[in-house]
Amino acid sequence: MSEEPMPRIFVVDDTETNIDILLETLGDSYEVSVALDGPTALEDIPERLPDLILLDVMMPEMDGYEVCRRLKQDPRTQAIPLIFVTAKQETEDETYGLELGAVDYITKPFSPAVVLARVRTHLQLEKARRELARSNEVLEERVRQRTAELHIKNAELEETRLEIIRRLGRAAEYKDNETGLHVIRMSHYSRLLALAAGMDEKWCETLFQAAPMHDIGKIGIPDLILLKPGRLSNDEWNVMRGHPGIGAGIIGKQSSPLLETARIVALTHHEKWDGTGYPRGLVGENIPIEGRIVAIADVFDALTTKRPYKEAWPIPRAMELLREGAGYHFDPRLVPLFDSILPRILEVRESWKEQEEDGNVVEFR
Asked: Are residues 219 and 283 both part of a single domain?
């Protein structure tokens, strides 16, 4: 194991006697370089990069204060600890030197033992500072690495949640004899309407990701009811009205904003503004905004696409029903907003279209 190199001291003093004393005092323990004037010191110090500087104040051509000022302005030398060694003994002189960036102030005539003790102390402090800085760099790098790992894990977890939602949504579609295009379209419609309603983008994105779960509860509805081609009887409707509660139960109460939004959507997307919806008969703004938005998006797509129990409606007729339903089925503020973004809605519909035919019978299951 190699020995540590001797610490390097740079002495700047225009008096050779002082230089000799400092060389004798420090030479056995340190590698000492010298300069007899300020300009030479400013030229040599950045090249040698000593561990500590001893600097006389009263020198011709350029005093120590100016040398200190320039060293502290140079990024290469500004962190090197600097001790003034001077005959100036006034308090204001010492204060001024410390304000310029010196770490200590030794007055002449100086005791070699005092100089040696001060040098040793400040070198130890500088060594500790550097070790702390290195430790902080290592710690910061570890924190950066750990943070990056956490971001990756969080992204993977979020993607897993999204995939679960997509898969469960697809399970409900297969049960309902639908294609995956329905949940894609109505999810896009929901996000566009939420943005038009002034919700922030993060909230709208969460709703977009949660909307595919709106009909997950249909997994619990018997096929004879769910796939019946004609109208449902009263008893069959009572069974069908249970699917929002089933869906909310499947998702469960969650701390995840995404899953909690999915639960709210599943539970409330069949509530109606006038309180005649199901499963809880909520009225007006007591219906969560998530459910009110998805209700419009879901019904519009149900109207304009073919289902086992109905044929597709043309767009004008579907919009007429939405407008007529404003204030009793749908939020009266949201329907005009949906109408205002209809061109963008139709762009989504065109992007995710499927074979459809016009017809007359409709039920919202």
From this structure: yes
Please state the three-class secondary structure of 231-274 as a single string.
CCCHHHHHHHCCHHHHHHHHHCCCCCHHHHHHHHHHHHCCCCCC
128 and 183, same structural domain?
no
pLDDT over 60 (residue 364) = no
Residue numbers of the domain that contains 289:
176-351
In a domain, 155, yes or no: no
Torsional sign, CA 23, 26, 27, 30: negative
Question: What is the structure's pLDDT at 178?
Answer: 55
Whether 325 and 227 share a structural domain? yes
> For the segment 133-190, what is each residue's pLDDT rounded down to a tens digit?
888 888 888 888 988 888 888 887 777 767 766 666 666 665 555 556 888 899 999 9
Task: Give the closest residue to 365 by CA, choosing from 177, 102, 124.
Answer: 177
Whether 361 is in a domain gets the answer no
| pTM over cut 0.70 | no
Q: What is the CATH number of the domain that holds 300?
A: 1.10.3210.10
Number of domains in the chain: 2
For residue 141, tell me if it sits in a domain.
no
Range 348-356, long-range pairs (CB < 8 A, 24+ positions): 348/185, 348/188, 348/189, 348/192, 349/185, 349/301, 349/304, 352/181, 352/184, 352/185, 352/188, 353/181, 354/179, 354/181, 354/305, 354/306, 355/306, 356/304, 356/305, 356/306, 356/311, 356/312
pLDDT tens digit string along 259-270? 899 999 999 999
Whether the predicted pLDDT of 114 surpasses 50? yes
Helix (H, G, I), strand (E, B) or coil at 106: strand
